[in-house]
């Protein structure tokens, strides 16, 4: 596999836009290096707020908890969806929440309320971003479900577009990255 060239985004977000746009890399713009590949593929010119980028970064949040089903209300699910959408700067129409209540779980040897959370996305995750995401998710879980931050683990999974299926194929096939 050859080297790749990443094109840098020179746009500066306007006041009021998401802080996630602080990143200097435009995820969608990757092309093979000309010195390694004599005929590089054309670079896709997607804008940072394009619908295609939103779809190609499809986040989903999974929560397994020992809380009873009655505690996981439709308002909790819609609140999680809205939070993930804003947090990752994604259209909520591409966000999926999956909460599994009534799980047989213990944490630290007790069965007090606890959870395991996994946030998966194609991009929009990383060392510094995950710290911000964790702070928001932990606060939400404590406020809305009563699960304290010392009774929960969270895993972040940055997925490759070729490993996520959608519309009968993969995101890589649909969006070329």
Automatic annotation (TrEMBL):
Q: List keywords of the entry alphabetically.
A: Cytokine, Isomerase, Secreted
Reaction equation(s) it catalyzes: L-dopachrome = 5,6-dihydroxyindole-2-carboxylate; 3-phenylpyruvate = enol-phenylpyruvate
Query: What GO molecular functions are on record for this protein?
Result: cytokine activity; dopachrome isomerase activity; phenylpyruvate tautomerase activity
GO CC field? extracellular space
Localization in the cell: Secreted
The protein's matches in Pfam families, at most eight in alphabetical order, are given as: MIF (PF01187)
| E.C. code | 5.3.2.1, 5.3.3.12
Major localization class: secreted
The record's family statement is: Belongs to the MIF family.
Q: What is this protein called?
A: L-dopachrome isomerase
Q: What is the lineage of its organism?
A: Eukaryota, Metazoa, Ecdysozoa, Arthropoda, Crustacea
């Amino acid at each position: 596999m050859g080297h790749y060239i990443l094109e840098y985004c020179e746009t500066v977000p306007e006041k009021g836009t998401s802080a996630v746009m602080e990143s200097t890399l435009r995820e969608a713009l990757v092309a093979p290096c000309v010195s390694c590949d004599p005929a590089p593929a054309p670079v896709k010119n997607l804008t940072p707020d394009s619908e295609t980028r939103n779809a190609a970064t499809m986040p989903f949040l999974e929560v397994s908890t020992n809380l009873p089903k009655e505690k996981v209300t439709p308002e909790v699910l819609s609140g999680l969806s809205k939070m993930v959408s804003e947090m990752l700067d994604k259209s909520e129409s591409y966000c999926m929440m999956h909460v599994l209540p009534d799980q047989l779980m213990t944490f630290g040897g007790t069965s007090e309320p606890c959870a395991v959370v996994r946030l998966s996305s194609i991009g929009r995750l990383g060392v510094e971003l995950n710290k911000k995401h964790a702070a928001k998710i932990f606060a939400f879980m404590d406020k809305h479900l009563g699960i304290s931050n010392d009774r929960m683990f969270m895993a972040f999974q940055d997925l490759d577009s070729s490993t996520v299926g959608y519309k009968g194929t993969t995101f890589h096939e649909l969006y070329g990255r």
